[in-house]
Amino acid sequence: MARRGARPAPPTIEEITSIGAEHGITHIGVASAEILADTRATLFERKAAGLHDGMQFTYRNPERSTDPRRAVVEAQSVIVGARPYLSADDPPEPVSDHRAHARVGRYAWVDHYEPLRVGLRAIGARLKESGHRATAFADDNSMVDRAIAHRAGIGWFGKNANLLLPGAGSFFVLGSLITTAEYEPAAAPASDGCGTCVRCIDGCPTGAIVAPGVIDGARCLSWVLQKAGAIPPEFRTAIHDRIYGCDDCQDVCPISVRLGRRNTIDIDPDANDVQSHVDVLDLLDADDEVIEQRHGRWYIAGREFRWLRRNALVVIGNVADPTDRRVRSTVERYRADADEILAEHADWAAMRLDERHAAAPSS
Ligand code: B12
Ligand code: SF4
Ligand code: SF4
Hints:
The protein is α+β, with helices and mostly antiparallel strands and 363 residues long. The chain is built from 16 helices and eleven strands. The radius of gyration is 22 Å and the shape is elongated. Residues 160, 204, 206, 208-209, 215, 220-222, 246, 248-249 line the site of one iron/sulfur cluster. Cobalamin is lined by residues 39, 42-43, 46, 55, 57-58, 105, 107, 138-140, 143-147, 157, 159-163, 170, 172-175, 212-215, 217, 220, 222-223, 226, 245-247, 249.
């Protein structure tokens, strides 16, 4: 019998799994808290080769992002959790006259990271009761989430660089709980399930997967839409109707598409602000305060919302109705904008609308 006031034993893996499950965490794995030396070397190599394209995140301080003990002194284990982000029911396609709706990457339709952190912290609270230290990270610069999940046996690196979970695919967000408690780590990473498939490499609209598992940041639309500055003209048509995020290398993945539909999460539209599409004309009429309130949780370089307006102008050029008055007047207004980058993207949008109008079959 436990002594009065004695601390409870640390939770078992079964208890951890069940606390995680209460928060939508469907997969749990354990990794040792040793330095991720290979990943550290990879970060430096890719940085030296320019593949990070100026990205900070885990590249800012590879010594830190690959060492769990920098976050929790004397850490012994890293408990990794994965939470699906595909929704059981996709929201209906928006309807409008001017068809100026942009698409949002599935991972950003609602905030999936916060519920993951909440679940990991709930496990952490149980560990703290037993006298251990435990800190949760998800999509934080302090930890390489995929690499630690790989070590924890949760999945394998697909050729699209995403971590695929056996029997479940890649539409999962990943996070970890670094703790001083000791658990038996995974004996080995999950074995590769891609085989000879190369669909993601062929399906990337900009050729950003330059080798299996290796992304050239400068070409990856997910980064191109987040970063500062003018969008290179050669990527503007490929952006098509994306405003934030890109799902193509997962949407063409036979494993993730087939199994993803069996590993979904319920997104309650009444409780969540579901942002699967953005009306780009509204966005271009909105001030910073409104944009921040609506899209403030997205990563936008320097939190400068001009970069979202820039993306919106590209989407207008690619998909809006060239004969719609509001489309044309919005573009003309931005062509006269004092922000030279926005004015130049509006020039491009006007040119592209003209091109599409000229190419459209006359009725
Ligand atoms: C920077 C970043 C980005 C950048 C760069 C992406 C990249 N591939 O590096 C940008 C903005 C482009 C991006 C895009 C996306 N991201 Co992101 N991103 C991150 C972040 C913050 C760091 C990633 C990182 O450290 N990259 C550094 C490089 C070196 O790592 P890597 O690309 O994973 O490379 C590994 C493989 O190459 C592997 N490897 C080495 N040799 C070999 C050889 C072979 C043959 C293979 C197959 C693999 C392999 O080892 C490398 C190192 O571990 C993490 C969160 C975090 N804190 O970890 C999220 C994270 C990776 N992103 C995530 C998501 C969801 C996305 C998007 C799907 C979002 C979207 N829809 O737009 C896309 C997917 C793009 C892609 N194909 O990778 C999830 C991935 C979940 C998963 N199941 O894998 C993460 C883990 C966030 C999270 N906590 O859930 N992201
Ligand atoms: S996210 Fe899009 S652009 Fe980036 S590698 Fe995947 S398909 Fe290519
Ligand atoms: S598309 Fe094919 S190669 Fe790419 S991640 Fe999926 S299974 Fe692997």
